Amino acid sequence: YDFDVFMHRGAGAYICGEETALIESLEGKQGKPRLKPPFPADVGVFGCPTTVANVETVAVAPTICRRGGSWFVGLGRPRNSGTKLFNISGHVNTPCTVEEEMSIPLKELIERHAGGIVGGWDNLLAVIPGG
């Protein structure tokens, strides 16, 4: 397939994960969600039909197509399968972004990929999971 990808700086912050807020930002407006319907597939960026996809989904799609859906579902645990990008930051020894199975325990994730907590686990005061 041959296609062009255009990168565009948005007008500012938008509500993470809300597709119509992203569209508003791309159009130079304040990044607030639109009322639906109409849905972006019918009326999206500048009134044109638009598909909004998470970059993480787009990135893993070729591997799933190559290896098959059963391979992807085989990662992790039943009802919590596949992989996820985890951004590990804060007071860890090696902040990083890593793709790992969905069901990995938090302590194992931090130990394996971020080298543990600075000063040891007794120094951990809080964890803020999010996306």
UniProtKB/TrEMBL annotation:
Keywords: 4Fe-4S, Iron, Iron-sulfur, Metal-binding. Pfam families: Complex1_51K, SLBB_2. GO terms for cellular component: mitochondrion. Residues 5-60 form the NADH-ubiquinone oxidoreductase 51kDa subunit FMN-binding domain. GO terms for biological process: mitochondrial electron transport, NADH to ubiquinone. InterPro entries: ComplexI_51kDa_subunit, NADH-UbQ_OxRdtase_51kDa_CS, Nuo51_FMN-bd, Nuo51_FMN-bd_sf, SLBB_dom. Residues 84-131 form the SLBB domain. The keyword GTP-binding does not apply. This is NADH-ubiquinone oxidoreductase 51kDa subunit FMN-binding domain-containing protein. The keyword Electron transport does not apply. GO terms for molecular function: 4 iron, 4 sulfur cluster binding; FMN binding; metal ion binding; NADH dehydrogenase (ubiquinone) activity.
